[in-house]
Amino acid sequence: MDLRLGVGGAATEAERAAVDVVLGPPESGWEGGGRRPIDGHVAFGGRAARARRHLLLPALHALQDRVGWISRGGLDYVCTRLTVPPAEAYGVASAYALLRLEPGPTTVVHVCDDIACRAVGAESLCRVLERRYGPAGEAGNGRAAAWMRSPCLGQCDHGSAAFLQRAGERPRRRVVAPVDADLVGAMLEGRDPGPPGPDRAPRVRGDGSGLRLLRRIGVVDPTSLDSYRAQGGYQALRRALELGPAGVIREIEDAKLLGRGGAAFPTALKWRAVATSPVRPRYVVCNADESEPGTFKDRVLMEWDPFAVIESLTVMGFACGAERGYVYIRGEYPLAEERLRRAVEEARARGLLGPDVLGRGFPFEVEVRRGAGAYIAGEETALFNSIEGRRPEPRNKPPFPAQSGLFGKPTAINNVETLVNVLEILREGGPAFAGLGTAGSTGTRLFCVSGSVERPGLYELPFGVTLRRLLELAGCPRPGHTLRAVLLGGAAGSFVDPGALDTPLTFEGLRSIGASLGSGVVMPLDHTVDIADICRRIARFFRDESCGQCVPCRVGTVRQEELLERLARGRPLGSAAQETALLQDLGAVMRDASICGLGQTAANAIQSAVRLGLIGAAPAGGGRR
Amino acid sequence: MSAVFVGLPRRMVEVTLDGRQTRVPEGSTLLEACRQQGIETPTLCYLENLTPVNVCRVCVVEVEGSRALVPACSRPVEPGMVVHTDSERVRTSRRLVLELLASSVDLSLAGPEVERWMRSYGADPGRFGPPAPPRGAGERDRARAGEHLAPDGASAETVAQPAKVDNQSYVRDYSRCILCYKCVEACGVDAQNTFAIAVAGRGFDARISTEFDVGLPDSACVYCGNCIGVCPTGALMFKSEYDLRRSGAWDESRQTVTTTVCPYCGVGCNLELHVQDNRIVKVTSPLDHDVTRGHLCVKGRFGFPFVQAAPEKDESGLGPAGGE
Ligand SMILES: Cc1cc2nc3c(=O)[nH]c(=O)nc-3n(C[C@H](O)[C@H](O)[C@H](O)COP(=O)(O)O)c2cc1C
Ligand code: SF4
Ligand code: SF4
Ligand code: SF4
Ligand code: FES
Ligand code: FES
User: Fold this and answer.
1) Closest-CA residue in chain A for B187?
2) CB count in 10 Å sphere of residue A310
3) Interface touch A90/B210, C-beta < 8 Å
4) How far apart are CA B176 and CA B187, in angstroms?
5) Smallest CA separation from ligand 2 atom 6, residue
6) Model pTM?
7) ipTM > 0.85?
8) Domains in chain B, please, with CATH?
């Protein structure tokens, strides 16, 4: 490898110091440190430095947090430290929305204009911001602050949300929800929106039959291990240690637990495939990248019951025979990240993580990794690449993660909600767990309810309740309003119309009507919402979030957005029938020929909206209703 | 006599291709199986001497039991696979891939095969509307992840932009780039190990780039030209060819190709000298050559001007050998 370094100018003291916090001080001249006499005779770095490539993203975060962008000198310094070619590091940095590659404002306020917030007026908030503070994304005349439009920030039940990203010696990352223009303005002017709010009670609801996964939310002190233990915490791990790895997996199999991250894959199969692999080391990963528009369940779990996430990941490590677990959490969840990190430290201090967990000869460590603004990094193989310091591009499957996952090793990966279910299974036993819900969908499900409802929030209900029942609980339709459609599963999901209200909310029930629960999004939209506009926002989302690797998705998402724009303007290309055919063709190639689930589902919602007549390919007026 | 180890015999795997049962060696890809059966499969991002990246998706086939189509170029055969290479689904996807590419990228130098596939799959790139005007120099390179200008739908966005002409050896005309990753692979672990270029940005704004889009002279590029050798669309091109094309003088019918051995070192790389009007206009190496696998170094690739240097007028008075 011929690295060409040092052409981009030197890193500033501040940049070097920030990177050194992550990587430790450089040990030799080869690593960008002071040149010692021995360095002229012995080469250091090389393979050892390259083995630390997984620290690339944390080092880039350090630069972004400290100076507000990644300068050539800063990037060069990171590359020298890790022996990464600068072109590759640039390729990595430029794939993330929260990393900047040109000097810019040190304060950026990302304001959600995504579907759920949009359904309740995000666009009017953006209009006010435009009037007051100029167009999104422009810092204007060297101003130190700018606001930007953001995809969903996982605060959908609040109706509006903003994410503050402020660089400096004391960098700040904060999410505020709900927000108004004054609050955004205050943040732009450098004021702090107050301390993170442990006081902000999360809205979790059920149907009166008792919460399970959400049992401890608002009850337990999320910063205290003792409080968690007083609520029965870490009994599941003890039970797991008694059962042994195969026993744990058997319980999960008996529980018929299916993944809650979107694909509904049997968890026991994944775990067993890793547990029985002859290859070592193995890894376990908790997918906490939650970025599906409309989804906020994992955030609530991580913020308000972080020890449960760590405990279940520990169980997973034990069952799979892994000694290291990762939690990959999206960059827009600073509070959840902080609490998880704290939980990891406390668990380690008390021997619940470390070389000898609970004195039972099982070594297990957890590392928390922060994403940097990329929905695609939630796709499991893209997530591995992201941790490894590569571009967050999905890999072709097969091979599947259980054979070749993180660092090319057998890896089990699960969604946060899936993992927390494991604690329930160990508490009451697999068969008892399977007794709840339906034959094909066992246990309870977290539903992220937002949109045109009176009581948005996180609902936990046994699988099998009907959509109608859930909407009743949430107060939908609102008095005097007419329900037009429900978006199920988020941007990657699909619309169903009021005729589907009696469908039981189960994997199989929704499959039978061509829909899916995905990540648990339930977003009713009534006549006050411009559904064509929601569809355009979805198209924009996929165009922005495509990794760009494969042609069907890279170009297809662009063409889909252009087409919806033509319909909205009532200016179809040729006849309406031609546009419909084009939309069908785009859907077909994206679904059939894309590499990953992003492209494969990027046309779902829009095609369902056409099917239901919510948006039309009619020449004029049909696009906007 | 010494024994030569030629590897274990490969087991054969039975698969059904378009209704025909066939046996192919274990570990072959579906593409190799198709080729063995004489079934033509279009490919754009695949090349024999590179690791498959399976990103263009023009080679997709239908495998029974698989929800989505699968890329033939990288999927290994499995016993009992039933594969359809010309079903309606396959034809639709291949046609759309070609349409999407041709509507966004200048494919005019991508070769006659691509033109033929476009015809045989009935690809009509005009369906997406007239192409949008080209972007300014460096504009696409400055695109930020997660943001883009709202389209008006009246025209189809493309990657059109001015060519990057920043050195004497070769030109990068990314309005012809289909993002097949081949150049990145050739510059990286598959051949050159220089890593001067990588994919940057994301989505439609993904592009091949040096760090911060610096010019090649400021990058790690060593001008081996291996990226040019693998580029399927003419996005990467010898400066000599680029100049001749611009002046309208490029004429392959007037060109000869002479295979020779590089004179610089003892490795023995085969060179193919493409000559027009008695000038070397580009240098390639055969993909199947044992030594080069199509790859060269800067000397073999670009070190030819001495061959055609006009005999210098001898002003020393000492004669050609400098004294004798
Ligand atoms: C574009 C895309 C984004 C995804 N994002 C997430 C995510 O944020 N969180 C998650 O748990 N799964 C996400 N997934 C699904 C994961 O790939 C994977 O299926 C999941 O982590 C498996 O966990 P489970 O079996 O517990 O559901 C995503 C998939 C795709 C295609
Ligand atoms: S489908 Fe989209 S996101 Fe997935 S690999 Fe292809 S380009 Fe990337
Ligand atoms: S000429 Fe060689 S070194 Fe330069 S970019 Fe191309 S492959 Fe890389
Ligand atoms: S420049 Fe050529 S080889 Fe490189 S990605 Fe583009 S089309 Fe492929
Ligand atoms: S936070 Fe705005 S849509 Fe989710
Ligand atoms: S040739 Fe197979 S995906 Fe490109």
Assistant:
1) A1
2) 30
3) yes
4) 19
5) A550
6) 0.95
7) yes
8) 9-131 (3.10.20.740), 159-307 (3.30.70.20)
